[in-house]
Amino acid sequence: DEQERGITMKSSAISLYYPVDNNEYIINLMDSPGHVDFSSEVCTAVRLCDGAIVVVDVVEGVQPQTKVVLQQAWEQGIKPILVINKIDRLIVEMKLEPRDAFNHISQVLEQVNAVMGELFATRVLSSQETKTTSVPQNTEFKEGEVFDWSSGLEEADDSQLYFE
After folding, report:
1. Using one digit for the tens of pLDDT, what is the confidence trace for 14-56?
2. Among 116, 113, 108, which Cα is nearest to 75's?
3. Of 114, 13, 17, 103, which is closest to residue 62 (Cα–Cα)?
4. What is the pTM assigned to this prediction?
């Protein structure tokens, strides 16, 4: 049924042996469905993994399920690796010139980075909200005192957040 529909319907795993510099590693790869109907499979897979490879179709771009997968990885503290695939579709199906294909890929990258930025901003703002709600509501400010209305986004480090 998976081959007929062209989508992964159940999570599957494989273990790979990887020797490097007199060290031996076992890499467990798990393929989980990206389709919205199987989000519980993705949720389970993310909880079991130390990393994630998020595959985005370059023509389709960021889809609602892409956002869900990125959010699940974010909540589990996993820094995902982004793979943009089906780049050949830009030339074969969409008949784009090289410059237009580059611009299209850049737009997909910006879409993914926008999702990551939204997740980051939400975390920073919610932590800032927690700090400000801890101040008693009936606090009176004396003359000359200034309330800090900053959101915390200016000070937050997002240098390792975005894909390049």
Report:
1. 888 999 999 998 887 777 666 666 666 667 777 777 888 888 9
2. 116
3. 114
4. 0.72
